Structures are given as C-alpha cells and as structure tokens.
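TA notes, week 10

Several of you asked for a full example with nothing omitted. So below is the full record: structure tokens for the whole chain, then the designed sequence directly under it. When grading your own attempts, check the secondary structure regions first.
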C-alpha cells in the first residue's frame, strides 16, 4: 500500500485537531497504508520545531522536503487552514507544489474575528480538501475550492468509566458535578458554564488548561464567581472516567469547528447543556436531544429523573452517523482519489 505522511502544528495532544488526526492515522493503517507523522511539537515520528504555531523561525525548504519526499501522499492537518505560522505554511506550500496532498480543514481564518482579514487556503490541481462541517465546505466553495465533507468520528462503545474513583479523586461528594471537557480559551465561554453552575448550585470541572493568553481572564472569572471549580484531569483519570464521574456535560462555546464533547457526551451517555454555536446547528439537525444552555428548569428535572430513553436515542443517532468504526470506509475513497492524482 501507499506511504502517507500526516503533518500539523502539533500532534499527540488533547486538542481536537490532534485527536482527530490520530483517528485518521488509525483508519489509514486499518486500510493498509504506512503512516508517519510530522509536527512542530507534541508526539510525532518526526518533530520539526519550525512547524509549531509559535515558532520564531520557519523550517527550511530542504528540511521539509527531506521529511516528506518519500511519501506518496501528504495529509495536512489545519496547518494551512489557520494562519498560526504563515511562514511554515508557505514553505509547506512550496514543498507540496505539483504533488498529491490532502488538506484536512478543522477551522478557517474568516471564522475567527481576529483572523478574518487573512486569505484562506490555496489550491492546486493535485490538491484535495476535506472539511469537518458543511459550513466550511460551503464557504470554501464560495471561494473557488471544492471540498469533501467528513464529520469527526467517535468510539460509540467506549469502555465504562470509574465514577466513584473519579469523584473521590477530584473531591466531589453528592453535589451536582458539571464537566466542561475543553481547554479554557476565550471562545469556550467559561463564563457561560459558570453561570449555569451557579443556577444549578453545581460544581464545575474545567478539564483543559488555560491557553492562548486566557490565564488572567480565567483567574478573574473564577475569583468573581461563587461556583466551586475543579481544574484539569488528575493523573490516572481517563476521559471515560471523567464522563462517568460527571452528572452533566456543558458546551457553552461561541465557536467550534465541530465540538467533540458534543458527541462524546452522547457516547458516554451524559446529558448535554449546549450553546448553539453555528456548527452545533448541523449536529442538531441529525435529531439529537440536548438542553439549551439556559434551560435550568429542564436540566434540574433531568438531573432529578434521568431520561434513559433520550440517552438511548442520542446514542443510536451517533452510531448511525458519527461512528469511528465507519471511518476507514468513509475515508478510503477520499484517500484513493487523492493518491490517483500522482498519476494524473
């Protein structure tokens, strides 16, 4: 089979791009391809520091050429989607010019207010594009780039988590425990999660670290709130444990390229309080039943008397439309078509 390289700013982390890239690597290997990873930071087969989003110096053309020349196809995970390292992106464009490449777009610059003035991805005859939502696919098409839509995929039969161990570890007793399974950055709307927990008299668990300079704002929010808060994921506690330990999941984001915790809440059979960011409407269109972020009455009713029927129905929808077991079958034709461009 073919040799495929997966390239990104960072890989092997807990961010959505790293997680989805890892799923693609697994699916590609299931299809029989030899896969290697290249990133600026994190965990990868080859680290090139100049690819990192915050790198001061871009990689040289020879450095990238050496890393990628032996591969039949290069998959670019968001590095050409968001202009977080323009110099590295432009070197990568040079190296991939005239050869088969597949760009997996998780976000696009005009979808972020502070990046809206930056031009979007480039295109060439031997390049192909994949988006993780219909909104991005449509917006790329309006800009002259055709893309295939492949929604993110999820393990719909995850291992059961350890509820009691988790609650003991994070020091939670009988109170309502609300999980915010994201990083703490501006668009995650931590204030919205705190407001909900205040009305529910609940403890909030912010699982991810503060990033993108949000540290001071997060501390200000926590200092001015009466809500009890737990921070980060303790050693030895898995994400399955975390979902098991929570009574409710909150997703208050104002923007997500997809929003993995939305479907993860379903696969781990937890109710979700959701703010309707743009792509959330696409997910809701499949028929999921979630609570509005402001539906305090409905959430209290559910917490007192959980609706197992709703959880069952949500899980069945996820199995039909977002199942990780189906990823190789959905990805295979896209990869085959991209690889065929080497012979075009």
């Amino acid at each position: 089979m073919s040799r495929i390289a997966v390239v990104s700013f960072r890989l092997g982390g807990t961010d959505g791009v790293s997680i989805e890239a890892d799923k693609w690597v697994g699916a590609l290997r299931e299809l029989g391809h030899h896969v290697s990873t290249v990133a600026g930071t994190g965990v990868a087969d080859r680290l090139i520091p100049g690819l990192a989003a915050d790198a001061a110096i871009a990689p040289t053309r020879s450095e990238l050429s050496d890393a990628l020349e032996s591969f039949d196809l290069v998959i670019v995970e968001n590095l050409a989607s968001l202009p977080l390292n323009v110099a590295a992106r432009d070197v990568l464009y040079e190296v991939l010019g005239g050869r088969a490449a597949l760009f997996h777009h998780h976000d696009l610059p005009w979808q972020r207010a502070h990046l809206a003035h930056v031009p979007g991805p480039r295109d060439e005859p031997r390049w192909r594009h994949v988006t993780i939502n219909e909104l991005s696919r449509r917006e790329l098409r309006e800009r002259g780039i055709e893309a295939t839509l492949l929604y993110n995929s999820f393990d719909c039969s995850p291992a059961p988590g350890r509820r009691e161990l988790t609650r003991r570890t994070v020091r939670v007793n009988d109170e309502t425990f609300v999980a915010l399974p994201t990083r703490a950055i501006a668009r995650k709307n931590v204030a919205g999660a705190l407001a909900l927990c205040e009305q529910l008299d609940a403890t909030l668990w912010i699982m991810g670290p503060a990033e993108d300079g949000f540290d001071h704002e997060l501390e200000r929010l926590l200092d001015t709130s009466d809500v009890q808060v737990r921070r980060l994921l303790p050693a030895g506690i898995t994400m399955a444990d975390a979902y098991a330990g929570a009574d409710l999941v909150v997703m208050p984001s104002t923007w997500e390229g997809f929003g993995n915790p939305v479907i993860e809440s379903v696969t781990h059979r937890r109710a979700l309080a959701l703010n309707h960011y743009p792509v959330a409407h696409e997910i809701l269109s499949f028929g999921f039943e979630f609570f509005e972020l402001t539906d305090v009455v409905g959430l209290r009713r559910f917490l007192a008397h959980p609706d197992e029927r709703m959880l069952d129905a949500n899980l069945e929808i996820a199995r039909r439309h977002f199942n990780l077991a189906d990823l190789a079958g959905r990805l295979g034709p896209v990869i085959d078509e991209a690889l065929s461009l080497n012979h075009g």
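The chain has 13 helices and 13 strands. Use that as a sanity check on your answer.
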